[in-house]
Amino acid sequence: MSLRLSTVILPYRRWSEGGRDAWQRAEQLGFHAAYTYDHLSWRTFRDGPWFGAVPTLTAAAAVTDQLRLGTLVTSPNFRHPVPYAKELISLDDISGGRLTLGVGAGGSGFDATVLGQDPWTPRERADRFAEFVQLLDRLLSEDSVSYEGDFYSAHEAHNIPGCVQRPRLPFAIAATGPRGLRLAARYGQAWVTTGDPKLYENGTPEQSVQAIRGQAEKLADACAEIGREADELDKVLLTGFTPDRGRPLESLDAFVDFAGRHQELGFTEIVVHWPIPESGFAADEKVFEQIAMEAPAQLR
Question: Would you say 287 and 295 are in contact if contact means Cβ atoms under 8 Å apart?
Fold first, then answer.
């Protein structure tokens, strides 16, 4: 299977000062999809400009025609499924059915405490993640939903006319642990990983590939438990968080080698960060564009 190449565009620029241009250029370069982070602020960007994911994707939908759009990823940290489902249905409509929802459990960063709550334990994050995904699945698939859970409730939540994409827009579920992988197996149209975070500082690229292979095998086991073929799910690698860091974007050959090693593991989509000068995502823009235009043909 051909490997698709996508990008993630962080929402740190004003729309009139390079924001619009990046999304339009992503389509011109032939990327399969362009995603953005769904955070209220993020790491080293916390004290600088940062814009909302849904308005950004809505604007991107209005200035592109073919490019798929999505979050990579949304989490329950500051979202409630009922109002968020309405926004997703609206965005799916505005984009003409080009939206993918990347969704994950969230972490312990700024988003986890910005509403004034104490950070959730890993167990509570996993519990909320499961309920968040299950309720979103219903809200995006059914005209009217009533639900009473441990964390979220819905009372006659109406979502008419529903998604353009049927039975609902696709979920790309980010997961590495057993509970998350079971969610991906049951509800996902795609599975997302960033690799093994324990290897980022001191691991090797070879160790990373082996760890990701193990994650993919566990996903296959989770699929087998419910009688689903693992090949039914797209497998998405969000780059920049493995021991390779930015090296795959140093040259076309380096990227093709990196992507090819993960294609052999069954990955169907590789996501690279749009270059951001003077950051951990800095890259030569000419090389980046060469990779976008030429790498997919070498990975068929």
Answer: no
Burial call 183-217: b when 16+ CB within 10 Å, e when fewer? bbbbbbbbbbbbbbeebbeebebebbbebbeebbe
CA distance 248 to 287: 10
CA–CA–CA angle 23, 107, 68 (5° rounding): 25
Q: Which of 181, 193, 190, 192 is nearest to 222 (CA)?
A: 181
- Asked whether 225 and 182 are in contact (CB, 8 A), the reply is yes
- Residue with structure tokens 């604007």? 59
Residue 1 pLDDT greater than 80, yes or no: no
Angstrom CA distances, 262 to 3, 5, 119, 184, 257, stand at 10, 12, 34, 19, 9
pLDDT of residue 108: 83
Half-sphere exposure of 277 (CA within 13 A, CB side): 2
Alpha helices in the chain (DSSP H): 19-28, 53-63, 81-94, 122-139, 178-187, 205-225, 252-263, 285-298
- Strand partners of residue 273: 8
Which tens digit of pLDDT belongs to each residue from 117-144? 899 999 999 999 999 999 999 999 999 9
Q: State the CB neighbour count (10 A cutoff) for residue 25.
A: 18
